[in-house]
Design brief:
Distance between the termini: 46 Å
Largest sheet: none
Shape: globular
Order of helices and strands: HHHHHHHHH
Radius of gyration: 18 Å
Oligomer: single chain
Number of helices: 9
Structural class: mainly alpha
Length: 172
């Protein structure tokens, strides 16, 4: 099954590569360009979801341990040439999506951007009972609103001192 899925991924990548190589946006209408933006955004969300699911398996398989990396996020940061923070968010998204709840379905459907999925994952790992609420916000509101709701959810479960410490960390 893996070989067939990998072959399909390779084929899809080749199709998108060919499409992008031959784009002539100067010939499009404004509405056509807007439709292309929407279409490419969906591709990005689906690709981010697929990548998060694959990252989950990279983590659990331990393949990342073949090098001198201390963590899967350090491995991903180097391999994908991204920041460690972005790699850590990706790894957390993979863990949360791997739990099989609503986040998994939303990621597979391409409903969330990588940033939205990471925000939901970060909060849902600590507060799994809030996942459905956060997904509703993610689908309907801005990323900033989602992050604010995540902060509210996190604050519900902590005392005044913990809220103060979290606020100090966020300001840094």
């Amino acid at each position: 099954m893996f070989d067939a899925q990998l072959g399909t991924l390779d084929d899809a990548t080749a199709v998108v590569r060919d499409l992008v190589t031959h784009l002539e946006p100067g010939e499009w209408t404004g509405e056509g360009a807007l439709a292309a933006v929407d279409g490419f955004d969906e591709l990005v969300r689906l690709a981010a979801g697929g990548r998060a699911l694959a990252v989950g398996r990279v983590d659990t398989s331990g393949v990342w341990r073949r090098g001198a990396h201390r963590s899967v996020s350090a491995f991903l940061a180097e391999r994908l040439r991204i920041s460690r923070g972005e790699a850590l968010a990706m790894a957390r998204t993979a863990v949360a999506a791997g739990a099989g709840g609503g986040l998994d379905a939303a990621v597979r459907a391409g409903e969330l951007s990588a940033a939205q999925a990471a925000a939901v994952a970060e909060c849902a790992l600590e507060h799994p009972d809030a996942e459905a609420e956060l997904l509703v916000v993610a689908r309907a509101a801005s990323l900033r609103d989602l992050r604010d709701r995540c902060a509210q959810v996190a604050a519900r479960g902590e005392g005044a001192e913990a809220r103060h410490q979290r606020a100090r960390r966020q300001r840094r």
